[in-house]
Amino acid sequence: MIEVSHVSKSFGGQEVVQDLSFKAESGGIVGFLGPNGSGKSTTLKMIATLLSPDRGTVSVCGFDTKKNARKVREQIGYLPEHLPLYPELTVEEFLSFFARIRGVPARAVRAQVSSLLHVCHLDDAAKKLCGHLSKGFRQRLGIAQALVHDPKVLLLDEPTNGLDPEQAQEFRKLLISVAQEKTVLVSSHLLHEMSTLCSKIVMIRAGKLVCEKEVLEHTRVEELENLFVSGGQL
Amino acid sequence: MRTVRDALSVTRKEILSLVVSPVAYSVLAGFLLLAGYFFFNLLGTYNLKLAQYVELPVKKGSSIPNLQEWVVEPYFQILIFLLLFAAPFITMRVFAEEKRHGTFVLLSVSPLTTTSLVLGKYLAVFSLAVLMCLGSFSFPAFLWFYSSLEFALLVSAAVAVLCSAALFCVVGLVFSALTDRQILAGGATLCFSLVLYFSHSLADSVGPTFSVLVQNLSPVTQTENLVHGAVSLSNCAYFVSIVLYGLLASVFVVSYQREQ
Q1: B109 and A76 in contact by Cβ < 8 A?
Q2: Hey, is A90 helix, strand or coil?
Q3: C-alpha triplet B30, B35, B39: angle, nearest 5°
């Protein structure tokens, strides 16, 4: 579970996130919506312990990101907006490395990597160098590295950016299959994607929370679109 | 225990990266080539001196040129100087590249401790330096096999070279942790190592108060006894303390960057 409470963050005197509070419970995908530059990535980075909030607190599975950063890191899998890779390693070596440093027992690494390669449809690319992967395969590898230690919380920053519609659909299917029993927070500005993928959306604009809403079966994309455009004032 | 296990995982990954790196092979080949050139040059000079000694009438008090003085000692001193130039190439990428490519983010969000990360990277670059040194030790090893050289003396001189390698690697690690530009890290490592190496020659110009300090800061001073076959605890303490300070400095810098 993720709990963001009255969090603010400034860069060079400009407040990028302002008094932001929301919760993401386990067992569903939470969409973190907002226009470009609204502070989504900054918030995700604060949850992932990459940035410290200036004010307020962020806790993941009950652990404070400032006081218990290491405990938080054990609970999370993070996919940044632009996935950095070690181009000289093969897909298998890349996943094995992250499995080891994220505490997967040495004896279980091989089995865990092999199972993830299968789940993420990367079996055929296992021996390929990371530097030779296409965008779609890179994203699959990105989610595989985020899942490699079976984390309780998944943080995905614009995961379908740059994917073609077919790849994006495959990615959504993959995400739904792995999201059960986990807390998944997906940042995006794609309303259609969020409406089909998420059970709840958190919408921010200029670093402020504008809306926190359950997405029900009858929630239409137009409804979300109106919320997005009006900044939550309907 | 977890720290050591994690450090070894990082070392393993770094070695995998080094194995496919053309830079590592070039540095290794260049180092061994130069070491071989200097070794055979010294051996040639020694043979010339020996021939002169045999052919010319023996002067009063002159002694037969010995291998240790004419080949072994200068060879190991040259190796230390060569390592000074090789170390920046093998250390400049360790942190700078991670930050440049963004993979530092993935390491930062992992539960890996900064100590494991720094230790793992250090072990990897030091392993490569050891490999280079072992290759260069093969030349005097052949000499030992076919001559009456003392084995203990060779071991002591080899320890001097390995200690210097450990020192130059830690200097490189600190500078690589400070920047995201490999060239800058390599350049700064080279400059700092050169200043450290030649600091003994500045001893006379800094006044009596700092003279001893400056004199003892240089690895040349600290390896002098070892190369001559005399193992001293104070010399070993110098290298151990510099390496520990370097590792601590790297941990401090990387921790700070992870928290930003």
Answers
A1: yes
A2: strand
A3: 150
Kindly report the nearest CA distance between residue A232 and chain B, in angstroms: 32
Strand, coil or helix: B83: helix
Q: Which residues contact A212 (CB under 8 A, 6 or more apart)?
A: A22, A200, A201, A202, A203
Answer yes or no: do A80 and B106 touch at CB < 8 A.
yes
Contact (CB<8Å) A102/B9: no
Residue B42 has pLDDT above 90, yes or no: yes
CA distance B234 to B222: 8
Average pLDDT, chain A: 87
Residues of B in contact with A103 (CB under 8 A): 2, 111
Q: At what angle do helices B219-227 and B233-259 cross, to 10 degrees?
A: 140
Write the CB contacts of B13 (distance below 8 Å, at least 6 apart in sequence). A86, A89, A93, A97, B120
User: Beta strand pairing status for A28-33 and A183-188?
Assistant: parallel
Q: Residue ranges of the alpha helices (H) in chain A?
A: 40-47, 69-75, 91-101, 106-119, 135-147, 165-179, 191-197, 221-230
Rounded CA gap, B115 and B101, in Å?
A: 21
**Residue in A with minimal Cα distance to B105:** A50
* Residue in A with minimal Cα distance to B13: A97
ipTM of the shown complex: 0.88
Position B182 scores a pLDDT of: 94
Q: What is the token pair recorded at A55?
A: 């004010």
Question: Measured between alpha carbons, how far is B246 from B240 in angstroms, rounded to an integer?
Answer: 10
Which residue on chain B is closest to A85 by alpha carbon?
B103
**What stretch of H or E contains B242?**
helix B233-259
**The sheet that has A2-11: what strands, in order across it?**
A14-24, A2-11, A55-60, A63-64
User: Which residue among B5, B109, B116 places its CB closest to the CB of A49?
Assistant: B109
Instruction: Tell how strand A208-214 and strand A63-64 pair up.
Output: unpaired
Judge: B113–A98 Cβ closer than 8 Å, yes or no. Answer: no
List of chain B residues whose C-beta atoms are within 8 Å of the C-beta of residue A92: none
CA of A214, closest CA in chain B: separation in Å?
29
Helices B2-19 and A91-101 pack at an angle, to 10 degrees, of: 160
Per cent of chain B over pLDDT 70 is: 97
Name the helix (H) or strand (E) containing A57: strand A55-60
pLDDT of residue A234: 47
Judged by CB atoms closer than 8 Å, whether chains meet at A86 and B103 is answered as yes
* A71 CA: distance to closest CA in chain B (Å): 7
Instruction: Report the predicted TM-score, pTM, of the whole model to 2 decimal places.
Output: 0.90
Q: Which of B16, B110, B116 is facing A73, going by the closest CB pair?
A: B110
The DSSP bridge pattern shows strands A200-205 and A28-33 to be parallel
Mean pLDDT of A155-179: 82
